[in-house]
Amino acid sequence: MSLENKETPSAPSDFIRDIVARHVAEQKYPRVHTRFPPEPNGYLHIGHAKSICLNFGIAREFGGVCNLRMDDTNPAKEDVEYVDSIIEDVNWLIGGWAEDRLGLKPQGKTPETISGDGKRDFYLSSIFGTSEAERIHSAVKLEPFYASDYFDQIYDYAEKLVEKGSAFVCDLSPADLEFYRGAPDRPGKDSPFRNRTPEENLDLFQRMKAGEFPDGACTLRAKIDMASPNIWLRDPVIYRIKNAGHHHTGLKWRIYPMYDFAHCLSDYIEGVTHSICTLEFEVHRPLYDWILENLTLPRALPKQYEFARLNLSYTVLSKRKLLQLVEEKIVTGWDDLRMPTICGIRRRGVTSEALRAFACNIGITKYNGLTDVAVLEHTIREDLNRRALRRLAVLRPLKVVITNFPEGKGEELSAVNNPEDESAGRRKIPFSRELFIEREDFQEVAPPKFFRLKPGGEVRLKYAYIIKCDEVIKDASGNITELRCTADLDSKSGGATAARKVKGTIHWVSAAHAIDAEVRLYDRLFTEAEPEKDGRDFKSALNPRSLEVITAKIEPSLKDATPELRYQFERIGYFTLDKDSRLSTLNHQLIFNRTITLKDTWAKEAHKAA
Ligand code: ATP
Ligand code: MG
After folding, report:
1. Where does residue 343 fall: left (phi above 0), alpha (psi -120 to 50 degrees), or beta otherwise?
2. Could you tell me if 220 and 194 are in contact, meaning their C-beta atoms sit under 8 angstroms apart?
3. Which ligand is nearest the CA of 319, by number?
4. Ligand 1 pocket, 340 CB below 6 A?
5. What is the mean pLDDT of each run of 10 residues along the chain (610 residues)?
């Protein structure tokens, strides 16, 4: 059975897709080309999933391509661990959906072989000219692009700006730089080094590159306008000295381009047409355009478009804060199941199809807002309801003895694997005299609307008999330890009284046949919808009950569970087998993680509180 349904519906249209559609109609570009450009300084989260689905979705819908590019211009915070996780997560998210839209990284060409204008064009034609088959073939390997592969070219472009008098080397200290820059309501002030000659600047810039100066001694700045109301245009720094090794380029560089300088040029070098980013970059757009326009480049220039980032209730979405949760061991790692990271969500048992459906359906707008995490949870439930195999499991067991069922007798009952999918078939579940039911399915003093088991009351055991509670057994301290019941032995499917109606149906497992499993009940990580509201410390809103670990009694067929399959423990929720099952702290062979409860318990709580 194929697990992932490949048919993620196309996203509804939005203002960015409208622009792209217009460009396609006008044949403005030979081909639509987008990119997803993470900085490898952390793991991807669900906000990135929105951006991935937007960029790959557009490539998919308009017959274009999308590059995965590491925006790796800051060696200090980046790491190959992050690069590897990004590749894995993107692969998982778009696999079976849009991987044939991946931009092809030219094989066997290194940055050294492609610097200089003529060679650069060769490089580009190799991107544009590849056959579809070759691209798909290489896409299977999902080789990302790296901004750091363009450092030579980006350096050449910087020299061009220096030569034409549009960039200068500035010796102001970082603090002075900051002060001279002014603020939105305070004009900036020209650097005393602003009028160095191009020759002097070129010499200094080359010496920066050669490693003659320590960190912070000077910077290369674009010469734009210190009086601009947009502070990003006030002679922004485009290169800085950092005597640091880089995860991709090693010790080759002593100077590194700033994000704003590298980003637009990487887009141009790759032939990107639509450079889509989040709203906070809107104020950078004039700089993006200024850099490209001042280099008199031969090909069509990429254009930047901004959309509102995803904010999700009960969640923090910032790599810096997620790193803090990991480093302070508040969670067990980036793939802790409570994390909003793609790897955490995947480990929790959410399918890539569900995550894509969420990312595609929340819509693309120009206004920042807060998406209710219940929307995500609803999407996950809908998806799992279609695919999950139904199983019986009892989380908090209470023993039931069926006194009129012979000792030593066993019976096999037939149960449906998935009412939503006939092809999933049926299975046998063992029944015997001693069973476990859920503790909360019995109440000694039951309220009027309690339709489960109570003294003298009747309930149906799912797929089995109607039972009646005759006697409640307690220990010395008054705790209920066992129920003694009688079964209507004609009431199972096909029997004389099978049609008899009782109000409640509960789940159960046979005590002799059930197996013990570690079950991890995960819940939201935060108790507040906006953990960071009004500048409060997000850690003050942590949910102390975000994880509970218990031993459950589960039906024996689950011994063959695999992490790829999804399960619904009937009446409880959706569960998946953890990949580290043999590491159970409770010494069981199986660990099941709760992906999500069957119903939205938080909505019920909120309703009660209101
Ligand atoms: P964070 O703000 O979480 O630290 P970031 O913006 O620094 O993330 P990048 O690696 O720069 O992370 O992001 C890669 C791409 O993903 C960028 O184009 C960015 O705009 C986009 N992106 C990041 N966060 C979100 C989000 N919450 N919703 C939508 N897109 C996002
Ligand atoms: Mg960023």
Report:
1. alpha
2. no
3. 1
4. no
5. 48 92 96 97 98 97 96 92 96 93 67 37 39 42 88 98 98 96 92 98 98 97 96 97 94 96 98 97 98 96 98 96 97 97 97 96 93 96 97 98 96 96 96 98 94 96 97 97 97 92 96 96 96 92 96 95 95 94 76 94 67
